Amino acid sequence: MDPVSSALGILGFVGAVVRQIDKYYETYREFPSRAKRFSASYKLKEPLIKRAMEYIFYDESIASNKEFLQIFQHLEGEVKDLEKRLADKPQKGFRAKLQRLRDRLSIEDVNKTLTKLSEYCEDMNRHVNLISMIEAIKVKNDRVIHWISDYPFDARRQDMYRLYHQETLKWVFKRSEFKAWADDLQDEVPSATFSQRPVLWFKGEPGVGKSVMASLIASRLKAAHSKGGKFCLLYFFFHFQQKDQQQAEHVFRSLARQAVQESIIFSPSLPISVVQIYNNHNGGNSGSLSQGEAIKLLETLLPGFDRSYIIIDGLDEYEQRLDAYENVPTALLRLAGDPNNKTRLMVTSRHSCRNLVHVKEFDEIVMGASKDDMKVYLERSIDDSLAVICQKLSTDPVVKKKVVDEILERSANQFQLANRGFELLNKSESYTDFFQSIRNISDQVYDSYQDSIKRIDNHHHDTTDTRRWEPMGIRALAFVLHAQERLTGLQLQHLLAMRPGKTSLDVDALPEPEYIVRSTLGLVSYTESGHFQFSHKTVAEFLHSPQQAERFNNLQIVLAQNLYAYKSLSQNSSAKDYPLIQYCDNYLLHHLLSYFYRKVYPYAEEPIVQKAVAKCMEADFEKSQQETWLKDQWKGDLTKLHYAAIIGAEDLIYPIMRNDGISIDSQDSLGYTALHVACMWRRTAMIRALLVNQANIHARTAQGQTPLHIGCKMGYTEVINMLISRNADCNATDGDGLTALHYAIRDGRMDVVNLLLNIPKIEVDAVDIERNTPFTEAVRLDNHGAIERLLESGANINHKGYQGLTALMYAAKFNNTNVGQMLIDKGSELDQQDDYGWTALHAARNGHDEYVKMLISNGAEIDVADNEKETPIMLFNSSYHGWVDMGALVLKHGCPVNHTCHRGRTALHYAAMYGNDDYVKMLLGHGAEVYVEDEEKETPLWLAVCYDRRSTIDILLSHGARMSHINKAGESMLFNSARHGWVDTGKLVVEKGEDVHHRDSNFETVLFVACAYNAVEYAEMLIDVGAEVDVKNRKDETPLLLSCRDGCADIVEMLIRRGANIHTLDKDGRSLFGNAVAKGHLDVLKVLVDGGVDIHEKDGDGQTALHQAVSENRAEMVEYLLQKGLDPTLVDSRAQTSFDKAGTVEMRRLLKTYTTESD
Prior knowledge:
Blueprint: H1 3-23, H2 31-42, H3 46-58, H4 66-88, H5 94-104, H6 107-126, H7 128-148, H8 153-162, H9 176-181, E1 199-203, H10 210-224, E2 231-237, H11 248-266, H12 272-280, H13 291-301, E3 307-313, H14 328-336, E4 343-349, E5 363-366, H15 371-384, H16 388-394, H17 397-409, H18 415-427, H19 431-438, H20 441-458, H21 472-482, H22 489-497, H23 513-519, E6 524-526, E7 532-534, H24 537-543, H25 549-554, H26 556-569, H27 581-600, H28 606-617, H29 624-632, H30 640-647, H31 653-660, H32 674-680, H33 684-692, H34 707-714, H35 717-725, H36 740-746, H37 750-757, H38 774-780, H39 784-792, H40 807-813, H41 817-825, H42 840-843, H43 849-857, H44 873-881, H45 884-892, H46 907-913, H47 917-925, H48 940-946, H49 950-958, H50 974-980, H51 983-991, H52 1006-1012, H53 1016-1024, H54 1039-1046, H55 1049-1057, H56 1072-1078, H57 1082-1090, H58 1105-1111, H59 1115-1123, H60 1138-1141, H61 1145-1158
Helix pairs in contact: 1-4, 1-6, 2-3, 3-6, 4-6, 11-13, 15-17, 15-18, 18-19, 18-20, 21-23, 26-27, 27-28, 30-32, 32-33, 32-34, 34-35, 34-36, 36-37, 37-39, 38-39, 38-40, 40-41, 44-45, 44-46, 46-47, 46-48, 48-49, 50-52, 52-53, 52-54, 54-55, 54-56, 55-57, 56-57, 58-59, 59-61
C-alpha cells in the first residue's frame, strides 16, 4: 500500500474512533462488534482496536508520546503533498471528501487518540507471546468443545429466546409451585438457599405455549442472575422428527458442552475434568464422549456454579433405547435432586409423559392456551415487528384490535396457529392482503393437525394396545368422527377397550376419559355433560380433508369390527352393563355398509352388497396377518376386486372386471392380487372363482410371496389343497428364499407341514438366503414334531446354515439337551465347525453345563481351535463368568490348565481379574501356574490388585505369588489402585512388600498418581508408609506443585500439612502461587495462604502472586490477594508493579480502589 493510501486509512480510522466517543460511551457492550467491523475495514487486529477504545473512553491520565506524534506529522505532510499534487489535476469529489475529514478532526483530538494508541501498541509488544498463547488455547478449547458435542444447541436456544415476550404468560410468576421452585427469583434477588422442590413440570397439549413458557422463564432467570455470581443455563429441545439425533448420549453430550462453555466464561482454561476425559480419549481420537462420561462430567461441573438450571423442552418426544447407559429423565432428576449441584430442572411435555410417570417429587403446572395469553402474545409481537404493516398497526389501535381478533378466531386455541397467523401478517403488504390470506389459515390449521397426527403415531406406546392396532388416539378420533350420535364417556371407553373375538370385557381396565383426551393430544374434549366431542370444529374438517379422509374412512371397518364383537358378547345382557347395545342395534349395519358400500356398490346391485356384508359379519377378524396387511393398505390403493375378495363376493368379479376394466391379476402397492387376498381371508369360493377366471396362481407380491405362501402362513389346509390341486409350485421361494415349508415351520403349522411333506416333489432341504433349511429352522424354534417329521423325510442333519451353524449348534446355543441328544443319536457330527471355527461345544459356552456334559460324554473334542487359534475357549469363557463346574468339567477331560490365549493370558489371569475366587481356587488345585506373565507383563496377582480383588489377592499370595512386579508400562501394582483410590487394597499390597518408591517411565512414583487423581486418603496412606513427599519427576516437579496446577485443593492442603516444601519452583521458575494462578484455581490459592505460604513470596522473576493474577486478568484472585494485604506497588525483577501488569481498565480501577483504601 502506498503512503497516501496508508495516511488516508489511518486518518479514517482515527476519525471513526473519535466520532464514536460520545455515541458509545455508555454502551460498552457494543465494543466487540464495533471492533470487529473496524478490524475488517482497516486490516487491524480486533483486540487492539477494542483496547484502544477502552483507553480513549475511560483513561484520562495517559501522557503524550512524541515519537508517535512525529509519525502523525509525517503522515500529515504526505497528505498535504497529496493535496498539492491534486490541485493541478482535480479528482471528482475527492477534495471535498478530504476536507470534510480534516474539518471533523481537531489536532487536539487526533494527538490524544494517537497518543493512547501508541501506548497501547507498546503494551501490546510486551504481550505478543501472551496473545499467541491465548489464541492457541482458544483453538484447542474449540476443538475439545466440538468433540464433546456437535449438536446445534445454539440455534435451538436462539429459537427459544425469539418466542419471549415480557407480558405473555406472566400469571406463572404468581403460582405457588413456581415460587417454591424459583425461590431465588423473588424480588429479582438471588438467594443463597436451595429450593426443596428442584423440579418443575409444565404440561399441556401441543400449541398451548409450553415453549413460550420456557422462553419466558429462561429470560427471567438470565436477567435475575446477570447481577453477579456464576450462573449456568442449559437447554435442550426434543423435536419429534429428530429422534435419531436426540438419544440419551446426544442429550447429555449437548448439556455437557453447554456447561463447559458456561464455565470458560468465568475461567478461560478448560476445567481439569474435561481435559482428563479428552486426554483419556487420546485427544479425541479414540471415540466420542459416552453418555456415562457426559453425566459424570455434568456432576463435576455443575457444583462449580452458584446456581445452575436445566430446561428440557418437549421431554415427551424422548424415546429411550434399550442400550442406553441411563434413562434421560432418571439422570436429569438425579442431577436436580443433588443439593451439592444447586441445580434445578424445568420440564415441558404433553399431559401424558411416560418419561415422568414414575416420578413423584416434583410440582406440576397444567397449561391451557387462553385467549388472553395469545392476545398479549400477538399484540407484543406486532409492536416488536419491523414489518411495515405492523408498524402501521402500532399507530392504529382500532385496526390492530380487528387484526388480533381475526387471528384469535382462526387459531383454534393454539399458540402455534396464532404465531402462523402473525407470520401471514408480517408477509402481507396491506390490510386487504392480510384479511384475504387469513381466510386460508385453514391450511395452516391443517398443518398443525397433521403435526398432531404424526405425534400421536410416533408416541404409540399404549401398553393396552399391540403394535398391529392403530394408536388409541387415532381410533378415538375416528370413532368420534363416524359416530352417528354423540358418544358418552362410558360408550367410548367400552368401544376403545373392545377387540374382535373377545369373549368378555374387563370393565376395570377401561381407559379413563382424561387418558383418552391425552391420547388425542387434546383434539377431543370431554364435556361437563359427560360426552366426547371435537375441541374445535376444524378438527372434523381436517379428518374429512383429502390428506386424511382415506385413513379415517378405512377405520370404519375397525369400528364395525368392535361393534360386531361387542354385540356378540353383550347378548342377553342389560343396557346398564353394556351401554353400547342400543347403539349397535341402531348403527352396526350402517358402519359396515359405509365401508364396503363405498368400495363396491357402483358395480353391483344392492342385494349383492347386502349378501357380501352378511358374509363379512361372519368373517374371523382376529387373524394378525389380515390386520397387518389392512393396516399397510390404509393409504387406499386397493382395487374394487380386492375388496370383493375380502368379503368373498365372487358374484362381483365379472361386473367389476366388465365395468371398470380391472385385470384379474391387478396388484396393489404391496404386489397383492385378488387371489392373494382371497387366500389370506380364507374365501374358498372366491379362490375357486378367481382360478376359473384364469387368475395367476404363481403371482408374487413385492416380497416374492405366492398365494401358496399366504395359505401356509395362515394355516388354511383347505386353501393349500385347492392351490396344490391346481399345480401351485410347492418349492417356490419368496424374496428371502423361503419356501412354503419354511413358512409352515416358522408359524408352527404342523398340519400344514404334514400336508406339504406328503407331496412327492417337495424339497426337504431347500435353502433360504441365510443358508437355513426347514430342518435348521425347526431345531432353532425347538419344534420337536417338525424335527422328527423332517428326519423321517430325509432332511440333512449336518447341514450348515446361517454363519455355518448346524442343527446341533442351534440346540447347544439354546441349551436344548433333549434335542441335542436326539440329533447325536441320529448321526449329527460332534466336531463340525462353523464359519468362525467354533464347534457345538463352543456354542454351549454360556454356562450350559448339562449340554457340555452331554457333548463330552458323547466324545466331543475339547481342544479344537477356532479361526483365531483360540483354545480352549470353554476354559477361558467359564473363567470370565466364574462357572466353576464347567471349568472343572473341561479340566477333568484333559484341557490344559496353563494354556494361553492370543493375549498371552491364562484362565487364572481372567479369574483373578474378575474376582472369581472359587474358580481361582479350582484352577490352583489343578496345578495352575501362579507367576505367569501375559503380553503386557501382567501376572494374575497384578490384575487382582489393579481391579481391587482383595480376597483374590490373599488366595494368590497364599499360593506363592510374588508381590514386587512391574508391567510393560513400567508401573507397579500400586499405580492402578491409586487411580481409583482403593486404600485398603493399597495397604494390603504395601504390607506384603510392594515398593512405594518405584518410578514409572515418567520417573514418577505412585504418590504422583494418587495426587493427580485427587485420591487424598490413598496419598496419605502412602506417606504413612514412607513415601517421599517432595519426590521429583523428570521435570523437577513435585506432587505439591502439580496439585496446585491441577486444582486439587484437598491434596494441596494434605501435602502442606504433611510437610511438603512450600518454596519449590517449577522449571520455569514459577512458585506454587504461580501455578495456581495460571490455571485460575482460587480454592488452591486460599489453601496455600491458609496453609502458611508467605503471601509476599516471589517466583524466579521476582513476581508475587498478585503480579501473576493481574497479568492473567483474574479479578477474583486479585481482590482476594488485596484483601489479604498483598501490596500492589511491589516490583518484580523488571521493576514493574501490579499496575504495570494490568491489561484492562477494570483491573486498574480495582487496584486503585485498594491502593486508595490503604493510603
